TrEMBL record:
Full protein name: HPt domain-containing protein
Ranges where the HPt domain occurs: 32-103
Gene3D superfamilies xref list: HPT domain
Organism, scientific name: Arthrobacter liuii
């Protein structure tokens, strides 16, 4: 996992090509980073309350959007948490959640640094 980049610029470049609208992918990255606090809170609460449906919804959303913006490490961790939740492994969930929070903060900082995102 540590060998995965925090941010893979190729993913955002591919999104730019797919959208075909200049600046739209940077707006997506900006919105993604701005929503980090809400995403992690929703995920943390649902895991702590053992609400599997809400936790799966939150972690899948995180996995997909992280992959789209190039957050490879965060997408990997979200995938691991999704797998644990699907298996009903709530004992592994807190460790994975802690890693998601740590690497999520690092990913947001890297996105802001790399793309000069002005996020609230």
């Amino acid at each position: 996992m540590e060998t995965l980049p925090l941010v893979d610029p190729a993913a955002l470049e591919a999104l730019t090509e797919d959208l075909g609208v200049p600046g739209m992918s940077l707006q997506f990255a900006r919105d993604y980073a701005a929503m980090w606090g809400q995403r992690q809170a929703r995920l943390r609460e649902s895991v702590q309350q053992a609400d599997l449906d809400a936790a799966l919804d939150a972690v899948i959303s995180l996995k997909v959007t992280s992959a789209m913006v190039g957050g490879s490490r965060l997408a990997y961790l979200a995938q691991a948490l999704e797998a644990a939740l699907r298996e009903g492994d709530l004992q592994q969930a807190p460790t994975l959640l802690s890693l998601i929070v740590l690497h999520g903060q690092e990913t947001m900082a890297e996105l802001q640094r790399r793309y000069d995102l002005a996020c609230p």
